Structure formats: C-alpha cells, structure tokens
C-alpha cells in the first residue's frame, strides 16, 4: 500500500465526462489499496473565461482580487470531482489551498509556498477517504493567493513532499515526456525514465509537459514524479534519481532501435524553444571591465542570461561585439537597459532579433562523453544550419539558430544522437489541447 | 456620515455592465461621505449553471461539496465588483463569508448564522476602502457553508447588525415593496414605509421582494431596511419601526388618491400566494382529544400549519371535518403522516387539492379596525369568490380561495381597501428577472 498524490490538469477535467473518467481512475487507485490525495486544476476553459470577464471590467485588475476571482475555478472542479467520486460509492472531501495548509508569501499572482501543514489531508486519508486539493492556490495572512504558472504541479509536488508520498503522478493530455516534441519530430519516442536533472534541463529549455518549478521542487525534496496521460493507460515517464522506486515491469529502454545498445543513451532528449531573442551589443571597446559592466546592466534588467558569444569585429579596431540569447519577453527589456547605459559603456550600437530559436540536447551521459559538442556542430553544419550562439551545462548543450531552421535542427539532432523510434510516435491526446 | 450596508442580488450584477453600474452607485455613496460595506450575490445565472453542471455529475450531491461548489459564485462576483470599484479610483477589498467573520452552524445548504465578528470589515472601512462581502456563505469548523434561501439578504442584515450600521439597503430589480404584486394589480402602488411586522407578514404570505428570514433578523436587531432598485433612482421602501430613521424628504403617503385621508391606511398591502394546498380530514369522530391528536400528527410532519377550518358534516352523524391550508411542499407530507395514523385517529378519509391559493391583507391599522374581516368577506362575496378557509394574526387576515380566482381576489381586496394608485404602476425592472 502506497500513498499516491495525483495531479489532474485543466484538460483532464474539461467537462462532466472527463470528471467521471478521472473519478474512475482515482477509485481504481483506491481499490488497488493505495491512499490517494488528488490535486486538481480549474476545468478546461474556466480560467480563460474568468480572465475574459475581468477584461470587461478593467484593464488593470488588482492582484489580490484577481487571485480571489481565479481561485473560484478550482473550487468548482474540486467539488464536482468529489461528487463524482461519491457517485462511485467512495468517500471524498475537497479542500481549498488554505484548508490543505498551503501557506505562501503574499505575492498575489505569483506566491511562493512557505510551508505545507496538511493536517486535514492526513486525517482525511486516515479515515479512508480521498482528499481532493485545489491546485494553484494557497493563503497568506488570511488572504487567498495563487502560485502563478505551473501552480497546480507545484501544489502537487509540495503536498507529496509534505505527506512523504511514495509518488506524485502528474496526469496530463500526453502520455509522458518524449525524446523531442512529437509534433516536430515524427519518430520521437516516449522516455520511460529520466533523472531529475535531465527533466529539469528539458523543462527549462522548451519541453512543455512539466513545469520547471515543480521539477525543481521535486528534485529538492526527492519526490518521484510519474508523468502519465489521463486519457490512456500508457506506462508514462518516471522522473527520479532513485531507480528503485520505478516498478520492475516499467519499460527501461527508450525504443526498439536502441535495444542492441548495452550502454545508457548519451542524450535522452532534444528540447526546442521558439520564444527566444538575440541581443547584440556592437562595437564595445575591448578594455578590462567592459564585459563585467555590460553583464551588470543585463542581470539587473532580466531574469536569466543563458548564452553569450563574443566576437571580434576586426583585429585592428580594438572593438568587440557581445551577443546574448534571452527569452523573448526579456529581450526588449535588456535592450532598453543597455541603451540607457550606452554613453557610460561606450558601445556603438545594439541589434535585436526575435527570429531565432534554441535547440538543446540533454542527457546525463554527456558528463562522460566529451564528443557531444563536436557531434552537434557537425550534424547541424551538414544540414546547412548556422549556429549563432552556444551554451552548455554539465548535461546540456544548447544552440541558437535561425527560427526558420529551428524545427529542422531539432529533427537533425534527434536523428544524429540516435533517439528515433522505428515507428511514428502516437500521442494519446484527448482534447487536442 | 453614516455606515451603510448595501446588498445587491444576482439580477443586479448579471453582467459586466451591471457590475459597472453597481460600482458607480457604491462610489456615489462613498462620495456622499458614507462608509459602505457591500454584500453581493452570485452573478445572474451562475448558480443555475453550477447546478446544471452538478446534475451532469450526480443526482445526489453531497451537501458539503455542493456548498463548496456554489460559494464559487460569490467569489467571482465580489472580486469583479472590487475591480470595478478600483476602476473608478476607489479602494475596495472583497471578503469571503469566512473572512468577514460569519460563523454558522454546520448545516450545509441551510446553515444558520451563529455569530458575526466582522473585524476585517471594520478595519477595511476605517482605512477608507469599500468592503465587499460574499452573500449567502459562512464557515463552520473550517468548512464552507451556505445559508440557503434568502441567504444574501440574511448576510446583509446580520452584517449590518454586527457593524451597528445605520441602514441596510437591499437593492433588487424592483423599486420597493408594493401594495400588491404589480403584475397582478395594475394600480398597485409602491409603499414608502412599512413596519417590520407588516413587512414580515407580507413576506411570509406571498410578497417575494424580501426574504422572511432577513426581515425577522432585521426586526430582532432593529436594523432599518431600505429596499431599492439598482436600476433606477426611486425613493424605495423603508422597513423600520423607528420613523426617525426615515429621511424627512421621503414620500409618506402611499398614493395620490389617499392624500385627502388624514388617517394612516388600515391596510398597507395585499399579498397572494399560489403555492398552497388544502388537506381535509373527513369524518372525524367528534370526541374530546381527536382534534389535539390530529394536530400532533400534523405538527410532526410539517413546518407550519397556517389555517384551520372545522365544519360539521351533518348534525346527526357526530362526525366533523378538519381542513388545513399548507404550503404545497408540505401538503403531501401531511397527508402521508395522517394516512399512517388513520386507524388510530379513526377518520373516514382524506382529500387533498393544490388548486387553491391564499390572499392576505396586512396592516398595523387592523389592530384598531375590527371591521376588516367583514369588509373582506363582503368584497369577496360580491365578486362571487368563495372563501374556503381563513386565518388571522393581529395585523393580517388571510383567505384561501380557488386558485383560478386568486388573482381576481387580490385585485378585489386591493380595490376594496382603497390601496389603488390613480396611475398604473411602473416597475423599474432591468432584466425582467
């Protein structure tokens, strides 16, 4: 008997039929002898509908009131889900974020969880009932807060950590994480197991299934994640650093074309991201301290600077160019900050483009395989794809390329690192959302 | 400067435009120098929509979960209303029932208020902001409860009592209480002032504008009510036993055709109710104790028995009939209880009909005017309307008549007691709901 936290996103609870299906799945887990705490998002379009209403009222909603409004969404889905479970003759009780003990900072709209004291959840599970908890929300000083992007996943992982759950199952509309986005790479294959570090890098650099924030939290607290489809019965993807938690009958080899390999794959997956921009500071005097000054301006303006390239414009001018890759929402902000400091920094000009994208290869095997950068450059060069910038972590290598070559680059690298399955990927998507 | 509690019902906040209109009215009250606490219901059809969703999930929703679900409705309206007030550059903060300190019994779906500790409301008003409170909801032992029918009015009155407010304004889609339902009596006139007892009797016997429960609460705590239209600017109806709280410029005479009268009207209004049934116990042995036994059975089965008529079937049989008038939802239940006791009580048969209605005339002047019953019988008799049963309180006289004569009876009594205005009533109804 295990303690299982299950999280169902908005597309898994889009309407009454979906709620019934989710209820059956929860009851099956109960009947298999497990304790089940469920974290649920707002139904399908509820949040969008509430935001539409808000726009009819004001263009600048107060953050506190917006949180009060949006938390109505989970209240609806969680109460209906509890009823749907009752309908199957199993007890279930729903709880708001506050009732579940999720205390947060008072940053309305983007609150961080400070503490989880799930006394009522523990009590409910002990009584033999299913506990249903509203995702995405908490409380701070008797006010309702929301956790912002990826909030429901974060709720689920935080609750799993506080309950010391055996696993946190993330149900979504696809059946796990893939070696690449199957909409771009037709032979992408579902990944059976990833380390938390790999999942972190994939999520941070374009894979959209898991929210970076929840993967970080799961990693920090050692919570095993199991990503599954709420529409199918596939094996899903485990994200864990402890191989013993993965059931013995779970698939272990990514695809049939890799079965002959005795080694673990070097690269687990390829992520890509369209939402990139490139800022180039042109004609910077090549004197000590300039690079540091430019960095200081950048880091004051934006959240993360992922990649830097430095090129001499001409050997005899004593001027250099700096290029940065940034998420597109940060690009303009960085440019404004740099322009404001142009006189002090003494550079000639700035150029900006968002017609770039980023492709990243991720795998723990990179640590022991120094050939990866060479393989990447060679594969892209053979395909006629120019690399503008490059960045690495211990287990990731990212390249910025022209946006119109991004998907081709993704396919090329997926193939070059031998990730392709023999068959086309079949994604069990329910609503197509 | 006064402390004003304003309550806006669902039809007053049906959409974004209505919310903007309500916000402007609240801001006007603020700008007139008053402190304003607002109680708001769920928007228009929200509750019905949530109940529709519920029916797609289960036919027997758990009471606790149903309350969790339905309280999402006020959460939406109150947050949007706060935003709409901000949009007019006034501060406003919304509060759930729990945050506003409404502690209730744990009777989910029909909770009673135990205590109101509106510390956060007081604090908010002191800070110069408008406090917006969710109607219809409270909390009990950290669970969310709803107050059932008339809940938002009840919230408003309870809050007004706890805050020691100067007035509780009930905004609705009509501009006050009328001498009769204007849809039935075209010359019905708006009543400027009623005593709490009159409002109580009118509400209890068919007038639908105020909920009986909130009028009782207002009476007990001495909270002056002011019923107004949220769509127009009419003077509205005051319900109070303290004439000094009514502003001096408020109309005092019901209608132009009564201006010559130096006396207060004997009858203030006529209420009618379609939802009535008549149960007759036929052939009851006329021996001591039988009536008491029948009553005991009835009072065990139903909430209120309003009227009783006793008729000898024939002088020589020694048998009598008892008739009762009951709200239609109680009628069948009473009949079942009586049938179960038929052997013990020894009666011959029971008849039941719901093709009856009740018309009631109400007025504090009845205390000093013993002619009212005679006038009522005469007026109805002249119009060819048969009275089946009759009941009285100190200030009310009710008659049960055939349902197809009910509206005619209402018009006849309205006319007979001189309540008609010279012009047809113009009801400022917004949505027609």
UniProtKB/TrEMBL annotation, chains A, B:
<dbReference type="Pfam" id="PF00696">
    <property type="entry name" value="AA_kinase"/>
</dbReference>
<keyword id="KW-0808">Transferase</keyword>
<keyword id="KW-0028">Amino-acid biosynthesis</keyword>
<dbReference type="InterPro" id="IPR036393">
    <property type="entry name" value="AceGlu_kinase-like_sf"/>
</dbReference>
<comment type="pathway">
    <text>Amino-acid biosynthesis; L-threonine biosynthesis; L-threonine from L-aspartate: step 1/5.</text>
</comment>
<feature type="binding site">
    <location>
        <begin position="172"/>
        <end position="173"/>
    </location>
    <ligand>
        <name>ATP</name>
    </ligand>
</feature>
<dbReference type="GO" id="GO:0009088">
    <property type="term" value="P:threonine biosynthetic process"/>
</dbReference>
<dbReference type="GO" id="GO:0005829">
    <property type="term" value="C:cytosol"/>
</dbReference>
<feature type="domain" description="ACT">
    <location>
        <begin position="279"/>
        <end position="355"/>
    </location>
</feature>
<dbReference type="InterPro" id="IPR001341">
    <property type="entry name" value="Asp_kinase"/>
</dbReference>
<dbReference type="GO" id="GO:0004072">
    <property type="term" value="F:aspartate kinase activity"/>
</dbReference>
<feature type="binding site">
    <location>
        <position position="74"/>
    </location>
    <ligand>
        <name>substrate</name>
    </ligand>
</feature>
<dbReference type="InterPro" id="IPR041740">
    <property type="entry name" value="AKii-LysC-BS"/>
</dbReference>
<comment type="similarity">
    <text>Belongs to the aspartokinase family.</text>
</comment>
<protein>
    <recommendedName>
        <fullName>Aspartokinase</fullName>
        <ecNumber>2.7.2.4</ecNumber>
    </recommendedName>
</protein>
<feature type="binding site">
    <location>
        <position position="178"/>
    </location>
    <ligand>
        <name>ATP</name>
    </ligand>
</feature>
<feature type="region of interest" description="Disordered">
    <location>
        <begin position="238"/>
        <end position="259"/>
    </location>
</feature>
<dbReference type="InterPro" id="IPR054352">
    <property type="entry name" value="ACT_Aspartokinase"/>
</dbReference>
<feature type="binding site">
    <location>
        <position position="47"/>
    </location>
    <ligand>
        <name>substrate</name>
    </ligand>
</feature>
<dbReference type="InterPro" id="IPR018042">
    <property type="entry name" value="Aspartate_kinase_CS"/>
</dbReference>
<dbReference type="InterPro" id="IPR002912">
    <property type="entry name" value="ACT_dom"/>
</dbReference>
<feature type="binding site">
    <location>
        <begin position="7"/>
        <end position="10"/>
    </location>
    <ligand>
        <name>ATP</name>
    </ligand>
</feature>
<dbReference type="GO" id="GO:0019877">
    <property type="term" value="P:diaminopimelate biosynthetic process"/>
</dbReference>
<keyword id="KW-0067">ATP-binding</keyword>
<dbReference type="GO" id="GO:0009090">
    <property type="term" value="P:homoserine biosynthetic process"/>
</dbReference>
<dbReference type="InterPro" id="IPR045865">
    <property type="entry name" value="ACT-like_dom_sf"/>
</dbReference>
<keyword id="KW-0457">Lysine biosynthesis</keyword>
<dbReference type="InterPro" id="IPR001048">
    <property type="entry name" value="Asp/Glu/Uridylate_kinase"/>
</dbReference>
<comment type="function">
    <text>Catalyzes the phosphorylation of the beta-carboxyl group of aspartic acid with ATP to yield 4-phospho-L-aspartate, which is involved in the branched biosynthetic pathway leading to the biosynthesis of amino acids lysine, threonine, isoleucine and methionine.</text>
</comment>
<dbReference type="GO" id="GO:0009089">
    <property type="term" value="P:lysine biosynthetic process via diaminopimelate"/>
</dbReference>
<keyword id="KW-0220">Diaminopimelate biosynthesis</keyword>
<dbReference type="GO" id="GO:0005524">
    <property type="term" value="F:ATP binding"/>
</dbReference>
<keyword id="KW-0418">Kinase</keyword>
<feature type="binding site">
    <location>
        <position position="183"/>
    </location>
    <ligand>
        <name>ATP</name>
    </ligand>
</feature>
<dbReference type="Pfam" id="PF22468">
    <property type="entry name" value="ACT_9"/>
</dbReference>
<dbReference type="InterPro" id="IPR005260">
    <property type="entry name" value="Asp_kin_monofn"/>
</dbReference>
<feature type="domain" description="ACT">
    <location>
        <begin position="361"/>
        <end position="433"/>
    </location>
</feature>
<comment type="pathway">
    <text>Amino-acid biosynthesis; L-lysine biosynthesis via DAP pathway; (S)-tetrahydrodipicolinate from L-aspartate: step 1/4.</text>
</comment>
<keyword id="KW-0547">Nucleotide-binding</keyword>
């Amino acid at each position: 008997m295990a303690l299982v936290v299950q999280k169902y996103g908005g597309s898994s609870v889009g309407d009454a039929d979906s709620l019934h299906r989710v209820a059956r799945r929860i009851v099956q887990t109960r009947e298999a002898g497990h304790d089940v705490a469920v974290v649920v998002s707002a139904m399908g379009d509820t949040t969008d509908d509430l935001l539409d209403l808000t726009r009819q009222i004001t263009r600048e909603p107060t953050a506190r009131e917006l949180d009060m409004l949006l938390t109505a969404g989970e209240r609806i889905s969680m109460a209906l889900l509890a009823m749907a479970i009752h309908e199957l003759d199993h007890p279930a009780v729903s709880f708001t974020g506050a009732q579940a003990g999720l205390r947060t900072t008072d940053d309305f709209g983007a609150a961080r969880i400070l503490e989880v004291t799930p006394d009522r959840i523990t009590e409910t599970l002990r009584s033999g009932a299913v506990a249903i908890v509203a995702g995405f929300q908490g409380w701070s000083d008797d006010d309702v807060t929301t956790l912002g992007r990826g909030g429901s996943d974060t709720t689920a992982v935080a609750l799993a950590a506080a309950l010391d759950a055996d696993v946190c199952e993330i149900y979504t509309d696809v059946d796990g994480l893939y070696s690449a986005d199957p909409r771009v790479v037709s032979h992408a294959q579902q990944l059976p197991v990833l380390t938390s570090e790999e999942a972190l890098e994939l999520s941070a650099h374009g894979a959209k299934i898991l929210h970076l924030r929840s993967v970080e939290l799961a990693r920090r607290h050692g919570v095993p994640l199991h990503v599954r489809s709420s529409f199918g019965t596939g094996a899903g993807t485990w994200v864990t650093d402890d191989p013993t938690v993965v059931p013995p009958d779970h698939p272990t080899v990514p695809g049939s074309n890799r079965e002959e390999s005795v080694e673990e794959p070097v690269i687990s997956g390829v992520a890509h991201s369209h939402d990139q921009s490139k800022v180039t500071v042109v004609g910077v005097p090549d004197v000590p301290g300039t690079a540091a000054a430019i960095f200081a301006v950048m880091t004051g303006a934006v959240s993360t600077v992922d990649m830097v390239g430095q090129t001499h414009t001409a050997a005899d001018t004593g001027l250099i160019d700096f290029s940065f890759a940034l998420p597109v929402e940060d690009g303009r902000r960085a440019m404004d900050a740099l322009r404001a400091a142009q006189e002090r920094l003494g550079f000639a000009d700035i150029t900006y483009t968002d017609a770039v994208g980023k492709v990243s290869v991720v795998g723990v095997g990179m640590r022991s395989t120094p050939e990866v950068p060479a393989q990447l450059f060679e594969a892209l060069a053979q395909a006629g794809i120019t690399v503008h910038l490059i960045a690495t972590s211990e287990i990731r290598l990212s390249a910025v390329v022209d946006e119109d070559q991004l998907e081709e680059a993704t396919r090329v690298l997926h193939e070059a690192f031998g990730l392709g399955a023999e068959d086309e990927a079949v994604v069990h998507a329910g609503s197509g959302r």
